[in-house]
Specification:
Blueprint (H helix, E strand, L loop, with lengths): L1 E5 L3 H13 L3 E5 L2 H10 L4 E5 L7 H10 L6 E5 L4 H9 L4 E4 L4 H13 L8 E4 L2 E4 L4 E4 L2 E2 L4 H11 L6 E2 H8 L8 H15 L4 E6 L3 E6 L4
Parallel strand pairs: 1-2, 1-3, 3-4, 4-5
Antiparallel strand pairs: 6-7, 7-8, 8-9, 10-12, 11-12
Helix pairs in contact: 2-3, 6-8
Protein name: Two-component system response regulator TctD
InterPro entries: CheY-like_superfamily, OmpR/PhoB-type_DNA-bd, Sig_transdc_resp-reg_receiver, WalR-like, WH-like_DNA-bd_sf
GO biological process, one term: regulation of DNA-templated transcription
Amino acid sequence: MRMLLVEDNEGLGDAVNRHLRGAGHAVEWVKSAEDAVEAFGLDTFDAVILDLTLPGRDGLWVISQLRRARSSVPVLVMTARSEIDDKVSLLDQGADDYLTKPFDLRELDARLRALLRRPAGQTTSVSAFGDVTVDLAGHAVSRGGERLDIGRREFRLLEILLSRPGVVVGKEQLMAQLFSFDEAVSINALELYVSRLRRKLEGSALEIATVRGSGYVARVRDGG
């Protein structure tokens, strides 16, 4: 997933940034509310991880700006506040969930997985596409019950395409969601991952088709 991390504390920000990148996510880390809103205006994110207490404007202002722009991006707030009134207020003002500092990074992962399933209304992280089963939470792909050896970035590519099965996803959008801002990669890198993924799905009902001049689409073959 592509995450926007808003945290001014160097220690916590670095720990969360490294953890998320290590899990295969692309992360844009900013340290102020104004930079967060600016970054959101320039790119698309799957989730926002937001510190409540920031220099200048606070996290609630960021949430208000996102919701005013009619963005439904999931927002997970990190807060040191323990009063129940603050937590209720967070949810009322547009946050989707919160973590009280200090927290375990495994809990951060679990909360993000739950949030990222909500927009599609999923009650399970496992979906079937013909004879291919994809477990988003478990980062696993299987065919006919046999697990396939799918690399981390290949899985992310498949995840992006399957978020809108049958819909063409442009190459530029895939590049933006698959790679971090600071990765110097060309379109050839994307094509390499597509080629690898196709080889591993070869013979299955699920195909990754090229739409010339546009991008790629994931779809189940007729009869699959």
